[in-house]
Amino acid sequence: MPRKSLIYIAFCSAGVLAFVLLVIYPNYRALLREEATQQQLAVEIKKQEILAPVYKELLKRGRFDFPDNLPRPETAPLPRRDVGRLSQVFKELAEKNRLELEDIITYPPVTENGVSRMDLDLKVKGEYQALRQFLIELAAWPSLERIVRFQVDSSPENMSCGLKLWLKLE
What separation in angstroms does the CA of 20 have from each of 13, 24, 124, 157, 167? Predict the structure, then answer.
């Protein structure tokens, strides 16, 4: 073989090798990573398929229907003009029950299925008996739709309570 042909073969071989190393091999590595991700997702989907019936059964068991024999206040939506006074109303309710209103956060109103509601986070601090009376008076509030979250943090001096409330709006 002539010397020029060997040089052409060497350059072509180097070009093919460079193409393989710079283009094909990185794509091959990326493809392997994607396949590994797909396998992990397939495992997660299998887990979800196995756990979904258990989760649905637990939701059915955990459903709470309000007993008919307990007193229930008449519900009335909160007029939108009174939304601005909520912090003052809750502060007065807390002070009336010898509690300290530490924090109140109101969220913009949300409308779902034609019903408007407003989410509200409260944090009060005080003694247990005062907290009990506060909750009783809060539950009697006509625009209270639901207490979504109730979290009690107890310390030797005082107890603090975090509440997430849904208020029904006009």
Answer: 10, 5, 67, 71, 64
Distances (CA, A) of 63 to 60, 104, 163, 167: 5, 29, 20, 21
Point out the domain boundary residue: 24, 39, 69: 69
Q: How far apart are CA 153 and CA 161, in angstroms?
A: 6
What is the pLDDT, as a whole number, of residue 132?
84
Segment 105-134, tens digit of pLDDT: 988 888 887 888 889 999 998 887 888 888
**E runs forming strands in 69-158:** 100-106, 110-112, 115-126, 144-154
Structural domain ending residue among the three candidates 13, 46, 69: 69
Burial class (CB in 10 A: 0-12, 13-18, 19+), 144: middle
Which residues of the chain, if any, have pLDDT below 70? 1, 64-72, 156-157
Q: Which two tokens stand for residue 67?
A: 């007993």
> What is the reported pLDDT for 33?
94
Residue for token pair 């509690």: 99
